[in-house]
Amino acid sequence: MQKLIETIQMLRQKLPKLRGTDLKEFPTRTILINPLLEALGWDVADPEEVQLEYSTWGGKLVDYALLLNAQPVLLVEAKPLDDPLEDVKAITQVVGYAANAGIEWCILTNGALWRVYKSMEKCPAEDKLLFEVDIDPQSPEGQTVEEIARRMWLFSREEMAENTLDAIGEQKFTDSKVRKALQTLLANPPKKLLFLLKQAVGDGTLKFPQIKESLARIMQHESWLAGVESLPSVSPKASSAKPDRSEGARKAWQSRRTDRPDKKGARIYDEQFHLKGKPPEIVALYHQLDQFCMELDPGMISKIPRKLYIGYQYHGHNVCCVGLGRILKIWLQVRYSDISDPPSFVRDVSTISHWGIGDTEVRIKDSSQLSEAKSLIRLVFEKVKQKA
């Protein structure tokens, strides 16, 4: 793990200069991807561990196949450094290559951002995302190098041999399916469920409409029903004992929910924390968005900076969350299916891990996209206002 931490630190120092050089795919592989794979325990120079230009179904080539016992367990497709990895076609291709080859796991990366997909999960390609990790110091997640290294270590040679991704993937995707089913049930609860709840509460005076309204409020406020997910962290093994994954998940969950200082000298996460070091064009877009959100109902909208995003609330009800990085990400408290003809830069994140609270993610790169996003934010605000 220490070698990985040192490699990430070294590459983070190089990234600002590299981003201004229009780095193509091959140098991206040489300068960024290869050193990180080596630090993860994969010997790129040994064809028994790493096969370059691996041939998959139909003769299609993938940049790397990582092998254990002469069998590929993880495919890695490389893109140029400045590729945002948003092209659905590219995601579909690498996921399809892995699935057709019978390989469960694949990664799409530009050297800085690494996205891990479970190829055989039954859902659209982009929803097969298990998690992503970004070594870029300008990443909106604001993770420490150690936190980044722990996340990347999940696809190290050591952890792949322990089937760690399999265990985490099974847990994460099962939880996502159950969560979505719960959302559907609680949004329109059948009489049998209402009856069971009434029995469990033990208050015969409660009416079904009261229980339904209570369920709606719980759905609005409880983050476990709002798409906030975490993954267990994995640290280097001091012995052959398996890590306590449930304990890791619990700690990760608590760290995500604790955004305020809890001890003397703890870091303060304010608006300037999120703006510092971000591209000027993204900061300008944020200010436009911030002005729009605050003017939805002057004096009634609250802006709440957290560690990973800036949230906007109306009388305690979430409207949206904003994350700043190389692009502007907005998470909306609305179901993707409730949006009529959503733009291409809007996606459903109800079943995949993401930082903000809400089921829909909007990725903004310019003012034209921001204009379309404002109408979606206003739609969410009007719905929240009716409930408040």
Structure notes:
The chain is an alpha+beta fold and 388 residues long. It folds into 3 domains: 161 residues, tt1808, chain A (Alpha-Beta Complex); 67 residues, no CATH class; 117 residues. The protein is 41% helix and 18% strand. The strands form 2 sheets. It has a 6-stranded mixed β-sheet with strand order 1-2-3-4-5-6, with helices on both faces. A 6-stranded antiparallel β-sheet has the order 7-8-9-10-12-11. A hairpin with a 2-residue loop joins β2 and β3. It is globular.
DSSP helical segment count = 12
Strand order of the largest sheet: 1-2-3-4-5-6
Strand content bin: 15-25%
Q: Return Rg in Å.
A: 22 Å
Low-confidence stretches: 223-230, 232-266
Structural class from helices and strands? Answer: alpha+beta
CATH structural class of the largest domain:
Alpha Beta
Which CATH architecture of the largest domain is right?
Answer: Alpha-Beta Complex
The CATH topology name of the largest domain reads tt1808, chain A
Specify the overall morphology: globular
Series of secondary-structure elements, N-terminal to C-terminal: HHEEEHEEEHHHHHHHHEEEEEEH
β-strand number: 12
The helical percent reads 40-55%
On the 0 to 100 scale, the average pLDDT is: 82
